[in-house]
């Protein structure tokens, strides 16, 4: 048993008792002049033997009871051998050599709940062989999901997090299944306030939300930045599943596209998107916001808007050959369902064939479709990208693949990968006969990611 971990008596604890974490430890120390601390710690390589900063407020150097003296505080597990202590003492004496002997003594310190970090506490209370470390913080809310063997300890874990994590006021457990197209989660309050309205910062922007009514995943911050970075000041940006604005807000502020339209089926997402537009001092006319089904948004709003903009540019006398050419970017971040929106692009411009003949410059269409590639068995890594491409090709039903790039966003859980598939949609497809209307694909319940997972590597 480690000398620097909570008492064994807390093992199996399910209700937090801070007093049970109280423990007195004897720390090996060497007392030296305070004026010598700097030279000793610079010249004698003691870092791997000192106590470190794991057990705050314990530090490598601490005040002695004697005026002008300091203790070098060592990790008792690192300096158990007498021969090692002799070597360390000799190195220190060689550095300061003031004629005084180097003596090892002990410093008794009482450690309490406040001294232990969350990792040490979880390791101490959970049964041997069971670990927990995965949680995500969104503003003042920490949200957890637990493996079955950890569930009996969820309330004490929540209490520990509430006490230990800075700015945490609420701890919730996410439901295991997302059962609706809004992708908001059933939440179980485990500790703290039942207050789900929170604010976070991402990419220098502020986002407010009701965490219980909208979807937000802080793990996607790099993906939000990556996609926004694909745009420029001539981009035409349409977000069909915009949420509270993680794509359109940074794009609008940092890339200043010529046109931005955002849509979401969830009225709560639209409500908070409007709040965040104002919060980040974006003028209302910079983002046109809609609340409708994504397929309808593609077939009607996007199609009409593109034709209008292209006609305006074709009729303009202010043509500048040095200006960047506009491109259309359609983002569909609803990974459990968005692939079902792809057929909406086929024939989306069919009713505008006459207008298109009069337009001298047609813009390139880029579609970014988020999806999950899942397997029921262990498969090679490359299978997931092949599956993502196959899923898109199956929905577009074209004589050749429209997929031009397949970006792996993250591993969600074992045998489940999230991709952003980029498709380049030709005008032949946009003008083709629309596909026959198929029965609405029911929303498939989506498993929330496991608390920790590693995809099994397959041998070649």
From TrEMBL:
<dbReference type="GO" id="GO:0002939">
    <property type="term" value="P:tRNA N1-guanine methylation"/>
</dbReference>
<feature type="compositionally biased region" description="Basic and acidic residues">
    <location>
        <begin position="451"/>
        <end position="460"/>
    </location>
</feature>
<comment type="similarity">
    <text>Belongs to the class I-like SAM-binding methyltransferase superfamily. TRM5/TYW2 family.</text>
</comment>
<dbReference type="InterPro" id="IPR029063">
    <property type="entry name" value="SAM-dependent_MTases_sf"/>
</dbReference>
<comment type="function">
    <text>Specifically methylates the N1 position of guanosine-37 in various cytoplasmic and mitochondrial tRNAs. Methylation is not dependent on the nature of the nucleoside 5' of the target nucleoside. This is the first step in the biosynthesis of wybutosine (yW), a modified base adjacent to the anticodon of tRNAs and required for accurate decoding.</text>
</comment>
<dbReference type="Pfam" id="PF25133">
    <property type="entry name" value="TYW2_N_2"/>
</dbReference>
<comment type="function">
    <text>Involved in mitochondrial tRNA methylation. Specifically methylates the N1 position of guanosine-37 in various tRNAs. Methylation is not dependent on the nature of the nucleoside 5' of the target nucleoside. This is the first step in the biosynthesis of wybutosine (yW), a modified base adjacent to the anticodon of tRNAs and required for accurate decoding.</text>
</comment>
<feature type="binding site">
    <location>
        <begin position="264"/>
        <end position="265"/>
    </location>
    <ligand>
        <name>S-adenosyl-L-methionine</name>
    </ligand>
</feature>
<keyword id="KW-0539">Nucleus</keyword>
<comment type="similarity">
    <text>Belongs to the TRM5 / TYW2 family.</text>
</comment>
<comment type="subunit">
    <text>Monomer.</text>
</comment>
<feature type="domain" description="SAM-dependent methyltransferase TRM5/TYW2-type">
    <location>
        <begin position="135"/>
        <end position="427"/>
    </location>
</feature>
<dbReference type="InterPro" id="IPR056744">
    <property type="entry name" value="TRM5/TYW2-like_N"/>
</dbReference>
<dbReference type="GO" id="GO:0005634">
    <property type="term" value="C:nucleus"/>
</dbReference>
<dbReference type="Pfam" id="PF02475">
    <property type="entry name" value="TRM5-TYW2_MTfase"/>
</dbReference>
<keyword id="KW-0489">Methyltransferase</keyword>
<dbReference type="InterPro" id="IPR056743">
    <property type="entry name" value="TRM5-TYW2-like_MTfase"/>
</dbReference>
<keyword id="KW-0808">Transferase</keyword>
<feature type="binding site">
    <location>
        <position position="333"/>
    </location>
    <ligand>
        <name>S-adenosyl-L-methionine</name>
    </ligand>
</feature>
<dbReference type="InterPro" id="IPR030382">
    <property type="entry name" value="MeTrfase_TRM5/TYW2"/>
</dbReference>
<dbReference type="GO" id="GO:0052906">
    <property type="term" value="F:tRNA (guanine(37)-N1)-methyltransferase activity"/>
</dbReference>
<protein>
    <recommendedName>
        <fullName>tRNA (guanine(37)-N1)-methyltransferase</fullName>
        <ecNumber>2.1.1.228</ecNumber>
    </recommendedName>
</protein>
<keyword id="KW-0496">Mitochondrion</keyword>
<keyword id="KW-0819">tRNA processing</keyword>
<feature type="binding site">
    <location>
        <begin position="293"/>
        <end position="294"/>
    </location>
    <ligand>
        <name>S-adenosyl-L-methionine</name>
    </ligand>
</feature>
<dbReference type="GO" id="GO:0070901">
    <property type="term" value="P:mitochondrial tRNA methylation"/>
</dbReference>
<keyword id="KW-0949">S-adenosyl-L-methionine</keyword>
<feature type="compositionally biased region" description="Acidic residues">
    <location>
        <begin position="438"/>
        <end position="450"/>
    </location>
</feature>
<keyword id="KW-0963">Cytoplasm</keyword>
<feature type="region of interest" description="Disordered">
    <location>
        <begin position="438"/>
        <end position="460"/>
    </location>
</feature>
<feature type="binding site">
    <location>
        <position position="224"/>
    </location>
    <ligand>
        <name>S-adenosyl-L-methionine</name>
    </ligand>
</feature>
<dbReference type="GO" id="GO:0005759">
    <property type="term" value="C:mitochondrial matrix"/>
</dbReference>
<dbReference type="InterPro" id="IPR025792">
    <property type="entry name" value="tRNA_Gua_MeTrfase_euk"/>
</dbReference>
């Amino acid at each position: 048993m480690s000398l620097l971990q909570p008492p064994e008596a807390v093992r199996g604890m399910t209700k937090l008792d801070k007093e049970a974490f109280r423990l007195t430890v004897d720390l090996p120390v060497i007392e030296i002049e305070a004026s010598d601390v700097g030279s000793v710690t610079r010249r004698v390589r003691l870092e791997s033997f000192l106590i470190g900063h794991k057990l705050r407020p314990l530090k490598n150097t601490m005040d002695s009871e004697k005026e002008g003296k300091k203790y070098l505080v060592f990790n008792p597990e690192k300096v158990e051998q007498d021969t090692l202590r002799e070597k360390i003492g000799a190195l220190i004496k060689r550095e300061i050599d003031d004629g005084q002997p180097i003596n090892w003594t002990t410093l008794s310190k009482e450690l309490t709940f406040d001294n232990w970090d969350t990792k040490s506490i979880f390791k101490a209370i959970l049964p041997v062989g069971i670990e927990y470390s995965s949680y995500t913080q969104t503003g003042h809310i920490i949200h957890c999901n637990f493996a079955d063997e950890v569930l009996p300890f969820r309330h004490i874990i929540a209490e520990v997090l509430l006490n230990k994590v800075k700015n945490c006021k609420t701890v919730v457990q996410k439901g295991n299944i997302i059962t609706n197209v809004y992708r908001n989660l059933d939440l179980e309050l485990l500790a703290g306030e039942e207050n789900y309205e929170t604010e976070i910062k991402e990419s220098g922007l502020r986002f407010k939300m009701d965490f219980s009514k909208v979807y937000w995943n802080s793990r996607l911050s790099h993906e939000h930045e990556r996609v926004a970075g694909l745009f420029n000041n001539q981009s035409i940006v349409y977000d069909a599943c915009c949420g509270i604005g993680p794509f359109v807000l940074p794009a609008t502020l940092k890339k200043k596209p010529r046109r931005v339209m955002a849509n979401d089926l969830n009225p709560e997402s639209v409500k908070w998107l409007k709040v965040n537009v104002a919060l980040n001092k974006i003028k209302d006319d910079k983002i046109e916001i809609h609340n409708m089904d994504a397929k309808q948004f593609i077939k009607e709003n996007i199609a009409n808007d593109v034709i209008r903009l292209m006609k305006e540019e074709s009729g303009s006398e202010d043509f500048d050959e040095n200006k960047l050419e506009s491109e259309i970017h359609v983002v569909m971040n609803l990974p459990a369902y968005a692939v079902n929106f792809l057929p909406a692009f086929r024939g989306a411009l069919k009713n505008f064939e006459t207008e298109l003949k009069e337009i001298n410059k047609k813009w390139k269409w880029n579609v970014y479709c988020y999806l999950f590639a899942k397997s029921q068995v262990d498969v090679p890594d490359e299978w997931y990208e092949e599956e993502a491409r196959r899923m898109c090709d199956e929905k577009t039903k074209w004589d050749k693949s429209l997929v031009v790039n397949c970006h792996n966003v993250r591993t969600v859980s074992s045998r489940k990968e999230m991709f952003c598939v980029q498709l380049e949609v030709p005008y032949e497809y946009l003008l083709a006969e629309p596909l026959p209307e198929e029965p609405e694909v029911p929303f498939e319940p989506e498993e929330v990611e496991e608390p920790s997972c590693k995809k099994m590597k397959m041998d070649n």
